[in-house]
Specification:
The complex is a heterodimer of chains A (about 270) and B (about 325).
Chain A (H helix, E strand, L loop, with lengths): L5 H9 L1 H18 L10 H9 L2 H6 L8 H35 L2 H6 L5 H31 L8 H29 L2 H22 L13 H6 L3 H4 L3 H24 L5
Helix pairs in contact in A: 1-7, 2-5, 2-7, 5-7, 5-8, 5-9, 7-8, 7-12, 8-9, 8-12
Chain B lengths: L2 E12 L2 E12 L3 E5 L6 H8 L7 E6 L4 H4 L1 H5 L1 E4 L11 H12 L4 H11 L12 H13 L5 E4 L8 H16 L3 E6 L2 H4 L5 E6 L2 E7 H7 L1 E9 L3 H9 L4 E8 L10 E8 L3 H7 L3 E7 L4 H10 L9 H8 L4 E2 L1
Parallel strand pairs in B: 3-7, 3-8, 5-6, 6-7
Antiparallel strand pairs in B: 1-2, 1-4, 8-9, 10-12, 10-13, 11-12, 13-14
Classes of the chains: A mainly alpha (about 270), B alpha/beta (about 325).
């Protein structure tokens, strides 16, 4: 009884615990941060405090924009805590998909069965996409629910765009990890590649915003491509969204080709 | 198509290190073919090439008439594979794991799975991380056998199994062959394979040294002989033995009187070839004890390899000790 997408279904059912854990983490972060907006972002004393901070620091943390509801949501949730949690989840799944599976010796037995290597990479990538999408929809719904009570004043259309970019950014580090795992067969390289995309993207953005001399770093930062224009406040840069999803698709394809061409488990 | 596997000139390099230097062999359909060799000889690499898990650097492979690299998924559906080191996921049960493999390699009759689990005395509903090494090996065997494949490729199948389960495994192999399947299995010791295999290939340092039948190896094998007799002088016993074809390394001594009948002579020797002439010669003696050991096929292999009888005392003692459990007492 051949089932449809057996590896995809297995990847999803195997990871329901971790998906649930990340969902709880994101929910907790949203519930802690967003309701605080009226007493932090909208508070003039708080604004004075932030003005007193070194401008380099407020720029690095994107706190220069937290005086408005959308800016606050952008800086704290999408730009920092949510970004961190989503990147970790996605890199973990991406690294486990091929690199981790091969290193633990499990991939050999899977490949000895009636599956192709392209199928392994594509179905497992699909499972990552679905999990990232699930968490992103959760974030969207929670922000929408808190929009009124927390006086955030976020435009729903802008929120849709921001969540799409949020998902794209997480997916990019996940597919980078997947691709590096498929290329090398090592989990540690996979984690390193995924973390590098997330961390360097963040750092290049934080540094690049400091002065015009280092502004060129912004061009290398996927984080900046996605969030450079503060999508929660101003709406998504759809070109950036398409670019990010395109790169993820290319990384999945590259991973599939790489695994197809090399020896496994050596 | 009478051959299930044909391997010609198979070479495999990892970086600059070549681990297979042109391996050739063929496995007839409906037979059991064993490949023996020390660890690191290239058994696992050869098997992985058959499954297209790794790709040859040179040479051709035909599995069930197809090139494994080009044949795709349909070919692997016809093969059951047991890796050399069975690794299982942690957070699952044997049953769920088998269901997944059935989904990607089926079709599998659920009844057949339960039947095999029962024969192997394996609890499918236990968490895999709690399984012992032997039970993991059973689960690995089960996933290889459960879809009744035409070809079984089994890397060290009896490793970790206790003798009773090894017997179950051997009967599973026989049944598979009775149903027309071909079995290709490996081991680092010949004694594990000799029971199951029709033909045996010896692989050493990435080369096939010899391909032979177990029967031929048995004929070429060297047996250890030891007996006590009374009433015949040591010299005469020695002379008698020396005239028997195939007997060598004769050592005869008179045993001290304490505990033995006076005039007891103990003789040790090696025998290669037929047993009958020896039995006829020994019939003339008044034997008080006789031990003719199982032929040591590993020594037989060495004999074929080097073309001469290996030195008896060197390295032989350990193997002989291991084999003396199975010695026949007459």
């Amino acid at each position: 009884m051949p089932r449809i997408l057996p590896l995809f279904i297995k990847a999803l059912t195997d990871s329901w615990r971790s998906t649930l854990a990340w969902a709880l983490g994101l929910t907790a972060a949203i519930m802690l941060y967003l309701p605080l907006y009226p007493s932090i972002g909208g508070n003039s004393q708080m604004q004075d405090l932030i003005n007193a901070l070194p401008p380099e620091m407020t720029k690095a943390l994107n706190y220069d924009q937290i005086a408005t509801g959308p800016g606050y949501t952008q800086a704290t949730l999408f730009g920092l805590v949510g970004f961190l949690l989503m990147s970790m989840a996605s890199v973990g799944w991406g690294a486990a998909a091929v690199g981790g599976d091969e290193e633990s010796g499990l991939l050999e037995l899977t490949l000895a069965h009636s599956v192709t290597r392209v199928q392994v990479v594509v179905e497992r990538a699909l499972a990552i996409i679905v999990r990232v999408a699930f968490l992103s929809v959760l974030v969207f719904v929670l922000v929408l629910l808190l929009n009124g009570p927390a006086e955030l004043g976020i435009d729903v259309g802008h929120l849709v765009g921001a969540v799409l970019l949020f998902a794209a950014l997480a997916l990019l580090s996940g597919t980078a990890a997947l691709c590096a795992g498929a290329l090398t067969g090592r989990k540690v390289y996979a984690v390193a590649a995924g973390a590098a995309v997330a961390v360097l993207g963040y750092v290049f953005n934080a540094v690049g915003r400091q002065s015009p001399d280092v502004e060129w770093l912004l061009n290398l930062s996927p984080y900046h491509w996605a969030y450079g224009n503060s999508p929660v406040a101003n709406g998504a840069d759809w070109g950036a969204a398409a670019g990010l999803y395109g790169i993820s698709a290319a990384l999945i394809a590259l991973g599939a080709v790489a695994l197809q061409r090399r020896d496994v488990g050596v | 198509m009478t051959q299930a596997i044909v391997v010609e000139g198979l070479r495999k390099k990892f970086g600059t290190r070549e681990v297979l230097h042109g391996v050739d062999f063929a496995v007839e359909r409906g037979t059991v073919f064993g490949v023996i060799g020390p660890n690191g000889a290239g058994k696992t690499t050869t098997m992985r090439c058959l499954l297209d898990i790794i790709r040859p650097s040179a040479g051709t492979i035909s599995v069930l008439g197809q090139n494994p690299q080009r044949a795709g998924t349909a070919l692997r559906r016809r093969i059951g594979y047991l890796p050399g080191e069975v690794q299982l996921e942690n957070r699952t049960t044997g049953r769920r794991m088998l269901e997944h493999f059935a989904a990607i390699s089926g079709p599998v009759e659920p009844r057949h799975v339960n039947e095999l689990a029962e024969r192997l005395n394996l609890d499918l509903d236990r968490q895999t991380r709690k399984l012992s090494k032997g039970n993991k090996q059973k689960l690995g065997l089960l996933q290889a056998f459960m879809h009744r494949p035409e070809l079984l490729v089994l890397d060290e199948p009896t490793s970790g199994l206790d003798p009773l389960v090894q017997q179950v495994f051997h009967s599973m192999v026989r049944e598979a062959v009775d149903h027309g399947a071909t079995v290709f299995l490996s081991s680092h010791v010949l004694s594990e394979v000799q029971q199951a295999a029709d033909a045996v290939a010896i692989l050493r340092d990435g080369e096939i040294i010899t391909v032979s039948t177990v029967e031929k190896l048995r004929t070429a094998a060297v047996r250890q002989l030891r007996f006590n007799s009374t009433g015949t002088a040591a010299n005469d016993v020695g002379a008698l033995l020396a005239r028997v074809p195939g007997v060598a390394n004769v050592a005869v001594r008179e045993l001290p009187a304490d505990g033995h009948a006076t005039g007891t002579v103990e003789a040790t020797a090696t025998l290669s070839g037929k047993v009958q002439p020896l039995v006829q010669a020994l019939a003339r003696l008044d034997l008080t004890d006789l031990v003719l050991e199982e032929p040591d096929l590993e020594e037989a292999v060495l004999t074929l390899y080097t073309g001469s009888t290996p030195d008896q005392p060197a390295n032989g003692s350990q193997r002989r000790a291991a084999h003396s459990e199975g010695a026949h007492r007459a």
